[in-house]
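Repro:
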Amino acid sequence: MVKLSTLLVVTAVVSGSFAFSAPAKANDQLAVSICEYIAADDKNRLRSKLKSSRVKIRNVYDAIQCNGNNLLRHAIASNAVDAGEYVVKNLSKSSLADGADIAWAESNGHGGSALIAAIKDRAGL
């Protein structure tokens, strides 16, 4: 009887661990795809991927890092104007109002990027 209950507990734990690893892999793949589409400046595929995954940029913006940068900084560093403008348009004005991304871009030599103007326009800076 003890062996049977131990076996049931072990089986439940093992099957439970497999059930929780699949969504994590799917989320990792989504993040990788988003980063790749931004780096390639492919706004259409970015939009399509977000729509098919039923995800909004503003909901995952803080959680996804591309090469150690947030999505907007990754777009600026990759000179991805179309994808970057898509990100800017889908973020709230308050998330852009602090000017941290503008300061980062200017300190890293990207002050002349077209995305800086889009950020300033959206945030009202």
